[in-house]
Amino acid sequence: MAVAIGIYGGRVGFTTLPASLLIFGGLMPLMTIGQLPTLAYYALSPRKLSLDEQAMIHGGKIYPYAEMISIGSYVSKAATQIRMVNGKQLLLRWDVWLGCEIWERILEAKTLPHLHRKACDALERGEKVGFGPGASLGQKTLSLREGDVAITAISSIRFVNESNMGAQRRILHVADERRELTVDEDQLCNQHVLLTLLAEKLAARDADETVSAEKS
To answer: Which end of the chain is more exposed for a tag (fewer CB within 10 A), N or C?
Structure first.
């Protein structure tokens, strides 16, 4: 491709220009073509986004929180992906709206009650609850892609920011006394529900240990 661009430049009298400039100039149309989906998104994406008491309004359409079944990070928080109960998927790219962290926190707070209740009902039935391809939770065990860890053995839960070739990623680290398991945030959905359930289970574990210590 570079050679072809250089030959074309020579034919039309651009041989006096630096070769690097010729190559870069020839690649510019290709770069622009490759970015067409992004450019189209900016041109066509609805600019109106509001979070009301019972629903999100996006581009003039109403999306009730109670009908949202999945909320997940997309490309390390560059966007939030939402799945509705009717199968419709939304992609909220936060570089379009200001104050993205506030929007996301409100969205999580609004969806937490019904998603938490749904997850608790499934756990009480003895079912495992999935949180995307990266994690699932049972009554006694947290399963990540790298393995399982007993909830009673968890010693720390934390997110770590990592950079790979300029791209920022958030990695969830879950450790017990023997090892530390990790999963990319992009492999999780409804992580606000997962973290809430884990916090509740760990609080119950600590309370049981305190009672046992007092009795002994």
So the answer is: C
